[in-house]
Design goal:
The protein is α/β, with parallel strands linked by helices. The chain has helices at residues 51-54, 118-121, 127-140, 156-167, 179-187, 202-209, 223-230, 262-265, 282-294, 311-320, and strands at 4-10, 23-29, 38-46, 75-82, 92-95, 102-105, 110-111, 147-151, 171-176, 193-196, 214-219, 233-241, 269-272, 302-306, 326-330. Bound molecules: NADP nicotinamide-adenine-dinucleotide phosphate.
């Protein structure tokens, strides 16, 4: 066992584009568990686009990460010492243990069944898959025959959304950056069409592909892409606001959607959601997602980078689109 616990802490609040230098790597002694606690060793860290906004001192669904605090993050970790009933050395757990090699935890850490693939537990069968499932089915309420458009479509969440839409009998159209990601969407993930927002006119392509309008728009991106979709919604459309990654690293006040008035004309609804509100029902999502994956109806990708020292660099991959699939870091 190593003698020290390396931690990534927030050094200062980022301004505009997140920088590696907004974090600092520090060495701390490895803590010892008290009664009712476990000591765990981090194996995989999950990178989330939302992490950028957790660093801003603004109202959010969770308090901001404090300056000097260990960066917040979800992991799959292994129990190395236990003073907690039901948890033994060697058990695999998942929870918010942060960007550190060792962490103390309690019964809030969820034990993973023996043999669970940790990359699966942090992607399709973790928060990502649960977000896609409830965001589309509960907030988007797709009906058979609907046209569902997804932004950030080749990403971890978006790719699952489009595939669930297909399973539910909808047409799925994905918007993603670059020919490689768009080809993956139509050739591997079964989307009906893909739009490369980096080389195509998104508005023109949406008009061509959705002559009767967009029934469900699942938005991971915000900005101009949201605007183009709002201009083309159908009567009674549902616009699901899952994320807005195009705005994450903007400095100052971001522009609002210009075309929101179309929600009035089309009697549409635009609604945000936070996956945390659905975690009590995670079992429903996991059961369906596992079954569909087992039947070969769902594909997914994980992008595993290595080395704890690369945590900030790995997070940054999300904002340039360098990731292909769920972004993880293996320690
Ligand atoms: N509401 C919730 O509870 C909840 C929970 C989890 C995730 N989310 C949201 O879901 C979204 C996807 O998260 P994820 O973990 O699945 O990440 P992801 O989609 O696997 O990765 C992020 C992707 O965003 C795209 N992107 C980055 N900057 C962009 C820009 N300026 N314009 C357009 N696209 C850009 C990139 O794809 P391209 O190469 O295609 O540009 C990148 O690969 C995020 O917005 C996240 O905040 C919400």
């Amino acid at each position: 066992m190593a003698e020290t616990n390396r931690q990534w802490r927030l050094r200062k609040r980022p301004v505009g584009m997140l920088q590696e230098s907004d974090f600092e790597l520090v060495n701390q002694p490895i803590p010892q568990p008290d009664q009712g606690q476990v000591l765990v060793r981090t194996r995989f860290l999950s990178m989330e686009p939302a992490m950028r906004r957790w660093l801003d001192d603004v109202p959010n669904y969770m308090p901001p990460v404090e300056i000097g605090a260990v960066m917040r993050g979800t992991s799959v970790a292994e129990v190395v010492a236990s003073r907690l009933d039901g948890y033994s050395p060697g058990d695999r757990v998942t929870g918010m243990t942060g960007w550190q090699e060792y962490a103390l935890g309690d019964a809030g850490l969820r034990k993973l069944p023996d043999g669970t693939d940790p990359t699966l537990a942090l992607s399709l069968l973790g928060v990502t898959g649960i977000t896609a499932y409830f965001g589309l089915l509960e907030i988007g309420q797709p009906k058979e025959g609907d046209t569902v458009v997804v932004s950030g479509a080749a990403g971890a969440t978006g790719s699952v959304v489009g595939q669930i839409a297909r399973i539910k009998g909808c047409r799925a159209i994905g918007i993603a950056g670059g020919a490689k990601k768009c080809a993956w969407l139509t050739e591997k993930a079964g989307f009906d069409a893909a739009i490369d927002y980096k080389s195509e006119d998104v508005g023109e392509r949406l008009s061509d592909l959705c002559p009767d309008g967009i029934d469900v728009f699942f938005d991971n991106v915000g900005g101009d892409i949201l605007d183009e979709a709002l201009a083309r919604i159908s009567r009674g459309a549902r616009v699901v606001i899952c994320g807005s990654i195009s705005r994450s690293n903007l400095e100052g006040k971001p522009p609002g959607p210009a075309n929101y008035y179309n929600l009035v004309a089309q009697r549409g609804r635009m609604q945000g959601f936070v996956v945390l509100d659905f975690l009590g029902r995670a079992g429903e999502a996991i059961a369906d997602l596992s079954r569909w994956a087992g039947e070969g109806r769902l594909v997914w990708e994980v992008d595993v980078q290595k080395g704890f020292e690369n945590a900030p660099k790995t997070l940054l991959r999300l904002y340039s689109g360098a990731n292909f699939g769920k972004q993880l870091l293996e320690l």
